[in-house]
Amino acid sequence: MAVFMLQLADGADAVVEADAAGRTAAGEIVLERTDRHGRAERLGTYRAEKVTAVFRRCHAGGGLYSWIPQPSDGAWWCY
To answer: pLDDT truncated to tens, each residue of the chain (79 aa)?
Structure first.
């Protein structure tokens, strides 16, 4: 599991625990988890215009954790 933070266009932040986050070619942000049989289940989808930035909580070295920004364009997946 990973922790993702989505900065939303309305000024709110959504913090979500998921196995993966991705950005589709259409710009939608999707969050997924894997069930006990290894199948991906979609937790949620955010329309492109509703999300201004996506971050993943990661070990940044030196014992510290930080929010690592994900690409703001193009399709990607982060685990």
So the answer is: 899 999 999 999 999 999 999 999 999 999 999 989 999 999 999 999 999 999 999 987 788 999 999 999 999 999 8
C-beta pairs of 54-61 under 8 Å, 24+ apart in sequence: 54/4, 54/5, 54/6, 54/7, 54/21, 54/23, 54/29, 54/78, 55/4, 55/5, 55/6, 55/7, 56/2, 56/3, 56/4, 56/21, 57/2, 57/3, 57/4, 57/5
- Is the whole model's pTM more than 0.85, yes or no? yes
